[in-house]
Specification:
Layout (H helix, E strand, L loop, with lengths): L1 E4 L2 H12 L7 E5 L6 H13 L16 E4 L5 E5 L14 H7 L1 E5 L13 E7 L6 E6 L2 H19 L6 E7 L5 E7 L2 E7 L8 E3 L2 E2 H4 L7 H12 L7 E5 L4 E5 L15 H14 L7 E4 L2 E4 L5 H20 L5 H19 L3 E4 L8 E3 L9 E3 L6 E4 L1 H8 L8 H18 L4 H28 L10 H11 L6 H9 L11
Parallel strand pairs: 2-5, 2-6, 4-5
Antiparallel strand pairs: 1-7, 3-4, 6-7, 8-9, 9-10, 10-14, 11-12, 13-14, 15-16, 17-20, 18-19
Length: 502
């Protein structure tokens, strides 16, 4: 791949776009004559990884130190090999260690030819007739080339929608394949959602993959459709400035960073109460099942029995084998499914609405300057379904990411019920039973997900939340209607098991 840049500004923008494609283990070999732009590229890439918009981070040339290290979100080692006399000296600079957890940018790599990592990315920078212009020839493994091409496609998307000169910085990646960036243009900011089409994966039940059974969004169409429906009905979903359904890019309003928890990760009671009141307002609204976006029709799926069970079976597929040291027998699994199938009938027979599915602290943006439901910013709703009004209430009342005390849980439930009673036509007893059932269902699902994130995806940090989920299970399983399920959980050591990282 050869790319031409007309100015130093264009070169530094490309360096930033390249930085957004990096992941641990990447080694960039920057080749070129003196003054070609190797240090310019490296400095821009490091500042992009640091989120340094103002250019305040000192990025000195490592000509004399040979290596400069930066402890960033993605650690960086910046090497200059011009002064080494023997290629074997590269071993003394700690390159291999640096690539275990981060990335390396290597200037003058030809001085250590034959001693550099296999699979390194070569970027040969050369000057052109125009003294400000540069050409870069890129030789990269296919996997890195695909990441870089997607990053450049994001830049093209931004250019097509008036944000071509925006600075891009990593914001976050979640437990799915989505990633988010914050983009700056002058004094404006926006959020870039990068959500490549989700592959179906292998069949797990009845010839269908997990994502289809659980009704997980496989592209950005559901997000765009549901976001529009929320805004049309007065709720605070982000405005969508631009989107591309084919590539999975969405440019969104930045709702800010206000949270419903404090700096010690303690729930702010008033904000949680406002959140359940927002749910009460949502549950008083009629929601369309069919939503149109750019001529495409999106139909919101039902939270049906297969979806309900496949979520609970994350416990039996991942959590139980981890804590018991063995998979369940067919008889044990059948008993588990039968218990949950009976509970689904209770939940499915109650009041239904648009359920957002992950309505909890990480996905609620608080706006103290707004009033009413506008204070509650909604950012994660692409997997929404039509199902019980109790689902999202259970999600926030027993927030999987923070400790919600029993007393606050009662206040939240009472606050929601009071708002619904005031609106009329609310079957409170059935609702409270559905909350208990769905609180257990969510905790059951999430226990399985957190073990899966550790075992399959190498993300052990989520295991820290397991004791909280077990405590929530103890509370909810005390409901008399859940006595048989509680006995099954006790028999299989679900609640008291200790789960250590692999």
């Amino acid at each position: 791949m050869k790319l031409t840049f007309s100015s130093e500004q264009a070169l530094t923008r490309f360096a930033c776009d390249t930085a957004m494609a990096l992941k641990a283990g990447d080694c960039l070999l920057l080749e070129g004559d003196l003054g070609a732009g190797k240090s310019t590229f490296a400095r821009a890439a490091i500042r992009a990884l640091a989120g340094d918009r103002q250019g305040r981070l000192e990025v000195p040339s490592p000509t004399f130190t040979l290596v400069q290290s930066y402890d960033l979100r993605l650690p960086v080692a910046h090497l200059d090999l011009y002064r080494i006399s023997d290629p074997a000296e590269i071993d003394e600079l700690g390159l291999a260690d640096a690539l275990e957890a981060g990335v390396a940018l290597v200037e003058w790599p030809e001085r250590a030819e034959g001693n550099l990592p296999a699979g390194a990315v070569r970027l040969a920078i050369c000057e052109l007739a125009d003294p400000d212009a540069r050409e870069i020839e890129i030789d990269a493994p296919p996997e890195f080339a695909a990441r870089l091409e997607r990053s450049l496609a994001i830049r093209a998307f931004l250019e097509a929608n008036g944000w071509g000169d925006a600075d891009r910085y990593f914001l976050l990646g979640d437990a799915s394949t989505r990633a988010y960036e914050i983009v700056h243009r002058g004094g404006e900011t926006a959020i870039l959602m990068n959500a490549p089409r989700r592959p179906d994966g292998p069949p797990v039940r009845d010839g269908r993959p997990y994502s289809q059974i659980a009704h997980l969004a496989e592209d950005v169409l559901p997000f765009v459709a549901i976001g529009k429906a929320l805004k049309d009905r007065g709720f605070r979903a982000p405005e969508i400035f631009a989107f591309d359904l084919n590539t999975g890019f969405v440019l969104l309003e930045n709702l800010g960073s206000g949270s419903v928890i404090d700096e010690q990760r303690v729930p702010i009671a008033g904000r949680y109460l406002a959140s359940v009141e927002c749910l009460a307002a949502m549950h008083a609204v009629s929601w369309p099942r069919d939503m149109a976006v750019d001529g495409q029709l999106y139909r919101v799926p039902d939270f049906d029995l297969p979806a309900f069970l496949i979520e609970t079976e994350l416990l039996t597929d991942w959590y139980v084998p981890r804590v018991a040291g063995r998979p369940l027998t067919e008889s044990e699994t059948s008993e588990f499914r039968a218990l949950w199938s009976a509970l689904f009938e209770i939940v499915d027979g109650g009041e239904k609405t648009l359920l957002l599915r992950d309505f909890h602290s990480p996905n609620i943006i608080w706006d103290d300057s707004a009033d009413g439901v506008a204070r509650i910013g909604l950012i994660d709703f692409q997997d929404a379904m039509i199902g019980s009004t109790a689902y999202d209430v259970a999600s926030i009342v027993q927030d999987a990411r923070v400790d919600v005390s029993p007393s606050l849980q009662h206040r939240l439930l009472d606050g929601y019920c009071a708002a619904r009673r005031a609106a009329g036509g609310f079957a409170e007893d059935g609702f409270r039973l559905a909350v208990a059932i769905l609180a257990v269902q969510r905790a059951t699902k999430i226990l399985g997900i957190f073990v899966r994130l550790d075992e399959r995806d190498g993300k052990p940090g989520y295991l820290a939340h397991i004791p909280r989920l077990q405590a929530y299970l103890r509370e909810s399983l005390a409901h008399p209607a859940l006595a048989d399920l509680a006995s099954w959980y006790e028999k299989h050591g679900i609640i008291d098991a200790k789960v250590e990282p692999r």
